[in-house]
Design goal:
The protein is an alpha+beta fold. The protein has one domain. Helix content is 28%, strand content 40%. The protein is built from two helices and three strands. It has a three-stranded antiparallel β-sheet, with no helix packed on it. A hairpin with a 2-residue loop joins β2 and β3. The protein is globular and about 40 Å long.
Length: 68
Amino acid sequence: MLGVDFPEGNYSRLAELARCIRGKMIISVNDIPQMREVFTGLNIQTVNINYSLAGKPTPRRELLICNF
């Protein structure tokens, strides 16, 4: 996703951390079915954004996930 080396298993670890920590946590990820599945049970909001590469905006959706 976006050319960043972040293995899928790390998202599962983030989700588990968000579920068990006492503090507040907000995560932003691409809106794809795998992310919705991994973060099930947490508060998920959808946000429309524009990615801009070479000055050409491309509409996309992000998930804002929080544990509060």
